[in-house]
């Protein structure tokens, strides 16, 4: 079931007209492996990425795909 869900998600991302990745504190709470996987996914797709306040650090802030933090304390 998990493999099927991953395939559906990959198809949705591949067919999206303007995908944006939005990461949060769950990435931080899940550990470094989750942040590395998120970073790899974002960089492989070439799509822009944003983070919440609690997600800062899960993606390299200096990367050209990072558009900044969103939310009440962000842009």
UniProtKB/TrEMBL annotation:
GO terms for molecular function: acetolactate synthase activity; flavin adenine dinucleotide binding; magnesium ion binding; thiamine pyrophosphate binding. GO terms for biological process: isoleucine biosynthetic process; L-valine biosynthetic process. This is Acetolactate synthase, large subunit, biosynthetic type. It comes from Veillonella atypica. Belongs to the TPP enzyme family. Residues 6-75 form the Thiamine pyrophosphate enzyme central domain. InterPro entries: DHS-like_NAD/FAD-binding_dom, Thiamin_PyroP_enz_cen_dom, TPP_enz. One of its GO terms (cellular component) is acetolactate synthase complex. It comes from the Bacteria.
């Amino acid at each position: 079931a998990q493999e099927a869900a991953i395939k559906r998600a990959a198809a949705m991302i591949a067919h999206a007209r303007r995908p944006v990745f939005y990461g949060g504190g769950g990435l931080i709470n899940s550990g470094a492996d989750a942040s590395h996987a998120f970073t790899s996914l974002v960089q492989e797709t070439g799509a822009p990425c944003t983070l919440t306040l609690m997600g800062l650090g899960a993606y390299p802030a200096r990367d050209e795909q990072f558009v900044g933090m969103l939310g009440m304390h962000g842009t």
